[in-house]
Amino acid sequence: MNLLFWSCIISHHAKAVRELLDKAGIRYLYLPPYDPDLNPIEKLWSKVKALLRRFKVRTINKLPIAICSAFNTVSASDCLHWFKSCGYLL
């Protein structure tokens, strides 16, 4: 089963979008308007930003490498933990 969690922005509620997801067999759940405690992406950003601070990048040329390095540390188990910590039953 494919499951998509996403925010409540207006474009996500468009009939054409819902029909496309339904046709593809993707279930979708909307998050509350803004509640970082229920949004696993906030946990991802927290980890990435902490790593970027730790890397102490001081030039724009090194920033893309640092960003890639930070994202490369994110594991599947991190993602699973973040969803569970937000109250999702997986």
From TrEMBL:
InterPro entries: RNaseH_sf (IPR036397), Tc1-like_DDE_dom (IPR038717). Residues 11-59 form the Tc1-like transposase DDE domain. GO terms for molecular function: nucleic acid binding. Pfam families: DDE_3. This is Tc1-like transposase DDE domain-containing protein. It comes from the Bacteria. Signal peptide: none annotated. It comes from Clostridium porci.
